[in-house]
Amino acid sequence: MPPRLPPLSALRLFEAAGRHQSFKRAAAELHLTPSAVSHGIVGLEQTLGVALFTRSPQGLSLTPEGVDYLAYVTEAFSLLLTGTRRLPTPDASRAIAVTCAPTLASRWLLPRLGTFLQRVPGVDITVDTSRRQVGFPTDGFDFAIRLSRAPVASGTWHRLFGERFVPVCSPAYHASHAGANGKIDLRAVTRIHVSSASEDWQSWIEGAGIDDFDAQGGISVDSIQMAFEAAMTGLGVVIGRRPLVDDYLASGALVPAHDITTPAQGAYWLICADDIEPHPECLVFRDWVIEQADTPSGE
User: Fold this and answer.
1) Which terminus in the chain has less CB density within 10 A, N or C?
2) What is the end-to-end Cα distance of the chain in Å, rounded?
């Protein structure tokens, strides 16, 4: 007698928990409690007669059997999702799901989204701003917009635009720290760092060719938007990232703290899932994002 397949719901719990290496994060993704995920995994292990996870005070990890099984389960879900997404619908349309870096979503994508909705009225759009790595097509996204130095994964990549760095601060901070020549000595200011950014103060210093400048110390936050807000409250100087900071510069909420602007090594990329071709609204969205990137504000 062939073995019976475990319940699909239990396999979904295992796929999420294995991908996150955490019952808590899997529960948050699936809108369940960690206890429900844990009990579901225990039931799956009992059904299979195999331990899939090792639980220890240091955390959760997959057993060798769990690692092997996860690869098959992930591939199976990927095939199911791909097949489901390729099914025709009465109007050949569906919701668009895009995951985007948080600050780019709030400072660049969302302010422009109205023009897309005018072009394709009635389409539903989901915007996710989690920082996790996206797996096409398992995660269910049509598009991802990410900061990267080069294409690094599956899907079709379109370069949108690069960032340019310039130190910025509030007008009041500039006024209180500028010397007689109207310039700020950046060695003497409180520097605001973004801990989640791969390029920050050191990148600007190297690009500007400034010697004997210690970039360490100051205030560290975990998002670009929070860093901008810290600078606007007068806490110090932050590396402004154009075009994300352009609206703040245009409004006068922030002002340049130095006259040198340097290019970043990374750029924002639009990554498309491989199965968007049958869906015309996805193709319009792809072309619209690329069109918007041709003329970012402030450039």
Assistant:
1) N
2) 67
pLDDT in tens, 136-171: 666 678 899 988 888 876 668 999 999 999 999 999
Evaluate whether 80 touches 25 at the Cβ level (below 8 Å): no
pLDDT score of 105: 93
**What domains appear along the chain, each with residue ranges and CATH number?**
8-86 (1.10.10.10), 96-161+267-294 (3.40.190.10), 163-264 (3.40.190.10)
Identity of the amino acid at 22: S
Burial 253-287 (b: 16+ CB within 10 A, else e): bbbbbbeeebebebbbbbbbbebbeebebbeebbe
Least Cα distance to 146 among 133, 155, 164, 165 occurs for 133
**Residues of the chain by 3-state class (helix, strand, coil), percent to 5:** 40, 20, 35
Give the 3-state DSSP-derived string for 250-275, with helices as H, strands as E and coil as C. Answer: HHCCCEECCCCCEEEEEEEEEEECCC
- Taking the model in full, what pTM does it have? 0.68
d(CA 271, CA 283): 12
**Tens digit of each residue's pLDDT (9 = 90 or more) over 201-218:** 999 999 999 888 888 889
Distances in Å between the Cα of 187 and the Cα atoms of 218, 226, 227, 272 are: 11, 22, 18, 43
pLDDT tens, residue by residue, 101-147: 888 999 999 999 999 999 988 888 999 887 766 666 666 788 999 88
For residues 229 and 219, is the Cβ–Cβ distance under 8 A? no
